[in-house]
């Protein structure tokens, strides 16, 4: 970790903060000095993340440096607007760092995938990132603040994967959305980048059969699955001014898989 607190004046909103990559990102940004608004569909999981950060875990007014948990379904526009209102009311400012980690899988082969499974994955993984990016950007522009928006995509969005047409489509959409947002928001001082994890040890990959994980691991030049902290390291860089001239980028964190 950097010796200086690169985010000591930042307020970071992290969605999907209750576990996996979202929790690791929350921990890393807090270590870099940011106040963290940790949001998850599972409010109790978000509160547990905040407890790990040493915050109160409730939506009371928070002095700078405190961390607060929020509950929201990012696939619902009204819920996302309410989330941004709550964060701004709690911290008296919009988040200057926004990291969208919320995501789900509903895997099946194309020939058998249900419309409901397609719709739900697109709603959370793509529409959710659109709604959060839009609401956060509107709050930053209206307040005249600069910011960094970081959207978690996936290497699967570039290369596809058996049984994941919905997930691959959603994550490919995140890349295009983020690149377009970067073009539109650069003049407002808002940078937008995406991170493309490979196979990371999270609750999501724990659902994958071990024989499949073993096969994937043999394909990774680094020889092992990644840790959530590997992704959090890249997010912290993109959130900080160390990446001040980087926008519209898609950073792969894969151990060399599919390079």
UniProtKB/TrEMBL annotation:
Q: In which pathway does it act?
A: Steroid biosynthesis; estrogen biosynthesis; Lipid metabolism; mitochondrial fatty acid beta-oxidation; Lipid metabolism; fatty acid biosynthesis
A biological-process GO annotation: androgen metabolic process
GO cellular component term of the entry, any? mitochondrial envelope
Q: Which domain of life is it from?
A: Eukaryota
List UniProt keywords, sorted A-Z: Fatty acid biosynthesis, Fatty acid metabolism, Lipid biosynthesis, Lipid metabolism, Mitochondrion, NAD, Oxidoreductase, Phosphoprotein, Steroid biosynthesis
Q: Where is the signal peptide?
A: none
Q: Does the keyword Lipid metabolism apply?
A: yes
Q: Where is the Ketoreductase domain?
A: 10-203
The answer on whether this UniProt entry bears the keyword Iron-sulfur reads no
The enzyme class is oxidoreductase
Gene Ontology MF terms: (3R)-3-hydroxyacyl-CoA dehydrogenase (NAD+) activity; estradiol 17-beta-dehydrogenase [NAD(P)+] activity; NADH binding; quinone binding; testosterone dehydrogenase (NAD+) activity
What this protein catalyses is: a (3R)-3-hydroxyacyl-CoA + NAD(+) = a 3-oxoacyl-CoA + NADH + H(+); 17beta-hydroxy-5alpha-androstan-3-one + NAD(+) = 5alpha-androstan-3,17-dione + NADH + H(+); testosterone + NAD(+) = androst-4-ene-3,17-dione + NADH + H(+); 17beta-estradiol + NAD(+) = estrone + NADH + H(+)
PANTHER family given in the database record = (3R)-3-HYDROXYACYL-COA DEHYDROGENASE, SHORT-CHAIN DEHYDROGENASES/REDUCTASES FAMILY MEMBER
| Subunit architecture | Heterotetramer with CBR4; contains two molecules of HSD17B8 and CBR4.
Protein name per UniProt? (3R)-3-hydroxyacyl-CoA dehydrogenase
State the species of origin. Answer: Carlito syrichta (Philippine tarsier)
């Amino acid at each position: 970790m950097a010796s200086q607190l690169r985010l000591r004046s930042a307020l970071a909103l992290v969605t999907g903060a209750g576990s996996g990559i979202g929790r690791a990102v929350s921990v890393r940004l807090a270590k870099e000095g940011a106040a963290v608004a940790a949001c998850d569909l599972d409010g109790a999981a978000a509160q547990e993340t905040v407890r790990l950060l040493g915050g109160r875990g409730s939506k009371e007014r928070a002095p700078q440096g405190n961390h607060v948990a929020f509950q929201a379904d990012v696939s619902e526009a009204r819920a996302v607007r309410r989330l941004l209102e709550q964060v701004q009311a709690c911290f008296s400012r919009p988040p200057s760092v926004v990291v969208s980690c919320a995501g789900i899988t509903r895997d099946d082969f194309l020939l058998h995938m249900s419309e409901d499974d397609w719709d739900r994955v697109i709603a959370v993984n793509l529409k959710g990132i659109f709604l959060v990016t839009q609401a956060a950007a509107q709050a930053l522009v209206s307040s005249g603040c600069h910011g960094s928006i970081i959207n978690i995509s996936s290497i699967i969005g570039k290369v596809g994967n058996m049984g994941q047409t919905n997930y691959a489509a959603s994550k490919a959409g995140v890349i295009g959305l983020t690149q377009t947002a970067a073009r539109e928001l650069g003049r407002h001082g808002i940078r937008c980048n995406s991170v493309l994890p490979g196979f990371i040890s999270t609750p999501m990959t724990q659902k994958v059969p071990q024989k499949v994980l073993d096969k994937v691991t043999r394909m990774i030049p680094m020889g092992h699955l990644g840790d959530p902290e590997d992704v959090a390291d890249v997010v912290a860089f993109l959130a900080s001014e160390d990446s001040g001239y980087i926008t519209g980028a898609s950073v792969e964190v894969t151990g060399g898989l599919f390079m």
